[in-house]
Specification:
It is a single chain. The protein is of the alpha/beta class. Helix content is about 25%, strand content about 25%. It has 8 helices and 15 strands. The strands form 3 sheets. Strands 3, 4, 5, 6, 7, 14 and 15 form a 7-stranded mixed sheet that branches. Strands 10-9-8-11-12-13 form a 6-stranded parallel sheet, sandwiched between helices. Strand 14 (about 315-320), helix 8 (about 325-330) and strand 15 form a beta-alpha-beta unit. It starts with a strand and ends with a strand.
């Protein structure tokens, strides 16, 4: 007779408007079929124990009742879904065996039954922190790599601006640009983050955008000759100011619009005429369109990491019960570095 085993879950309660709140999610105890924690025979699925979960700004878009995006919305009444690092407990899929460590989409819960494996990576590299497979070697790191190399084409001597620079993506963008011989400036939300960017991550300069009454003037101060590359994670006023400070032939990678995610009426951009005058290329992108480059990215960034040429900063919340607060904190800048949730040890 099949028994039931408790499975703690973070449930998405319903679609929202405005900034997410902890009360938009609910910690519940669900159940999974026990039978010795087995994957259902004939399902082709495998059961995992979730070890680390990733908090990412794109997940805010999945809280809207909209199917117009590149990824469908969350399902009310079901666990939140996101990137995670997990350990295979039992498998009905011949490609995944008990004990395997994997990174990819999973549920915000203690145990998940995985059926889709198209963006799943086996973790073969065991001499780096497991959580790094959600950041430095995961989707954010790959996003940084693709956006900088495929969209911005950096070359030695380029001037580079990175917004949300201490975040999961921005901190690696800056370090990769420095390895190309670029001059790199980051914007961040606090003096603590500015100190981190300049003294640990290795940016040439950084500033607190909240303390600048005139962003156009601030960027002119840091880039008197103009900006060659702007890696945009925020949109809004910073994008408008960057457009006014771009050099002829500049490149803008539009990675995120975190300043607009909670707006019911998103802010427009006023300085697009600069695209024509300065022959600027501005392009949005998704890392999932470049998955053929993932092995190249992984090997190159792993080599940099082992050589001590790059570092990575994480903000770890311990316990699934703290996942809602950790996620909400992304939108007030509470996190310092890549936000992850430690759910369990292997």
């Amino acid at each position: 007779m099949e028994q039931q085993m408790e499975n703690k879950q973070v449930i998405f309660k319903g679609f929202i408007k405005g900034a997410p709140m902890e009360t938009d999610m609910e910690l519940k105890v669900g159940s999974i079929i026990d039978s010795g924690l087995k994957a259902p025979p004939g399902s082709g699925a495998f059961l995992v124990k979730n070890l680390y979960l990733s908090c990412d700004p794109y997940m805010r878009g999945r809280m809207r009742n909209s199917h117009a995006s590149y990824i469908p919305p969350f399902v009310p009444g079901q666990p939140i879904e996101g990137f995670g690092v997990s350990k295979v407990v039992d498998s009905d899929d011949p490609d995944f065996k008990p004990g395997d460590l994997v990174s990819g989409l999973t549920g915000w819960e203690e145990y998940s039954l995985i059926r889709k494996t198209d963006q799943l990576q086996k973790i073969e590299q065991h001499d780096v922190p497991l959580s790094y497979h959600l950041g430095l070697f995961g989707m954010p790191g790959f996003t940084a790599y693709v956006g900088l190399h495929e969209i911005c084409s950096p070359k030695q001597g380029d001037t580079v601006l990175v917004s949300a620079a201490s975040g999961a993506v921005g901190q690696l963008v800056g370090q990769l640009a420095k390895l190309h011989g670029c001059y790199v400036v980051g914007s961040a939300g606090s003096s603590q983050k500015v100190d981190l960017l300049k003294n640990k991550i290795g940016f040439d300069e950084a500033f607190v955008y909240k303390e600048e009454p005139d962003l156009k003037a601030a960027l002119k101060r840091y880039f008197p000759q103009g900006i060659d590359i702007y890696f945009d994670n925020v949109g809004g006023d910073m994008l408008d100011a960057a457009l006014l400070n771009m050099r002829v032939g500049g490149r803008i990678a539009v990675c995120g619009m975190v300043s607009q995610l909670n707006q019911t009426k998103p802010q427009g951009i006023h300085n697009l005429f600069n695209l024509i005058m300065k022959r600027i290329r501005m392009q949005g992108f998704l890392q999932s369109d470049y998955l053929h480059l993932f092995p190249l990215f992984f090997n190159q960034v792993m080599e940099y990491y082992k050589q001590g040429k790059i570092t990575y900063v994480e903000d770890v919340a311990y316990g699934l019960e703290h996942a809602p607060a950790a996620f909400v904190g992304l939108f007030s800048g509470r996190n310092v570095g890549k936000q992850v949730i430690h759910v369990a040890s292997p």
